[in-house]
Design a protein that fits this description.
alpha/beta; 3-stranded antiparallel beta sheet; 5 helices; globular
């Protein structure tokens, strides 16, 4: 992991994720799927407010490529644990685990890491719903932990994730995988695995939709003036 990783999300994130350590076990009907926007109607509203910059097939290819890169850089992912940052980092972590298992033939532990109480803006908005941390039974001590998130922006969420991680174990190394890197970092953080680098202005909003949460796969780009209320703004 390059420096202290982190990425910012909306105050309402932190939905619970299933505790299964098996690949591909994330389920849309679980509490973690109760996201900031309602399924179906939320996705339709998002599409109406933004331009699609990443289609479902492209997202699928990006996940497959990241999975192969993880395998190459970790010598077969034998000691890898994937931890998704709620909300959309969790299904992405389970997708990556599923892809790796397809290639290597062995399951890769995947779980979730809630960062709600580690956010540096907690004192500004103290009323937050706690999410769910699900660490695989094998733990993280001595492992290579890959933090997984949908969008990397300021870097503050990943910093919070590192603090949260330090309270549950001592991994051998920590890496970061993101579906979209939109730039504008506020902390010295760089991802190890990136699905797509997407240059943006700070007034623009990146909105990631995933089937497990929103009923469809897409990445949307819009101006902040046209974004639906409650959007995470790709932070």
């Amino acid at each position: 992991m390059h420096a202290a990783h982190q990425e910012d999300r909306d105050p309402g994130s932190g939905d619970g994720a299933p505790g299964s350590a098996r690949a591909g076990s994330y389920q849309a009907g679980s509490p973690s799927a109760g996201s900031r926007e309602a399924k179906g109607s939320g996705a339709e509203g998002s599409r109406a407010a933004g331009r699609t910059v990443f289609e479902p097939a492209e997202i699928g290819r990006a996940v497959t490529r990241i999975a192969h890169e993880i395998l190459e850089r970790t010598n077969g992912a034998g000691d890898v644990v994937l931890l998704g940052i709620p909300t959309r980092g969790v299904p992405l972590a389970h997708r990556l685990a599923g892809r790796i298992e397809e290639v290597e033939g062995h399951p890769v532990p995947a779980g979730s890491l809630d960062i709600t109480m580690y956010r540096d803006d907690l004192r500004l908005r103290p009323a937050r719903a706690l999410g769910h941390t699900a660490v695989p039974a094998s733990g993280i001590d001595g492992k290579i932990v890959v933090l997984v998130d949908d969008v990397l922006y300021s870097g503050r969420t990943v910093r919070a994730a590192l603090d949260a991680l330090g309270d549950i174990g001592r991994p051998r190394a920590v890496q970061l995988a993101v579906l979209v890197d939109r730039g504008h970092r506020e902390l010295p953080i760089r991802p190890d695995y990136v699905g797509k680098n997407l240059p943006t202005s700070q007034r623009q909003i990146i909105r990631v939709l995933l089937t497990e949460v929103d009923g469809e796969d897409a990445v949307l780009l819009s101006d902040s003036s046209g974004a639906p209320g409650g959007d995470r703004a790709g932070r």
